[in-house]
Write a structure and sequence with these properties.
Helix content: under 10%
Largest sheet: 7 strands, mixed
Structural class: mainly beta
Radius of gyration: 13 Å
């Protein structure tokens, strides 16, 4: 069992920044993948970024996140963060972190993740 708790969401003006955190507890593995997804009202949950939880730090980003968002991990604090810069109104959504048991394959797919946090709301005003 793995528990994930997101924090750091809020209201920000376009062009601003937010830093989301995902606190992770429970039984994790060095091969696990932590992913960030977001879901806007009436839309599917979309992949944003993912990283390896242990070993060599590797990352993957969606096209919409590249250059604006940065994923990082702190194994000592058991957290994975998502730094979001140059935010746009279209970034408004509930942001979720998810836990995938192992391997990069399928890491952009919501269905590959077996545990999820409760989500944190990000609202970007124009």
């Amino acid at each position: 069992q793995v528990q994930l708790v997101e924090s750091g969401g809020g209201l920000v003006q376009a062009g601003g920044s937010l830093r989301l955190s995902c606190a992770i507890s429970g039984r994790t593995f060095s091969t696990s993948i932590i992913g960030w997804f977001r879901q806007a009202p009436g839309k599917e949950r979309d992949f944003i970024a993912a990283c390896t939880w242990g070993g060599v730090f590797s990352t993957d980003y969606s096209d919409s996140a590249k250059g604006r968002f940065t994923i990082s991990r702190d194994n000592a604090e058991n957290t994975v963060s998502l730094q979001m810069n140059s935010l746009k109104p279209e970034d408004t959504a509930v942001y979720y972190c998810g836990f995938k048991l192992s391997h990069w394959a399928g890491s952009r797919s919501e269905g590959s993740y077996i545990y999820w946090g409760q989500g944190t709301q990000v609202t970007v005003s124009s």
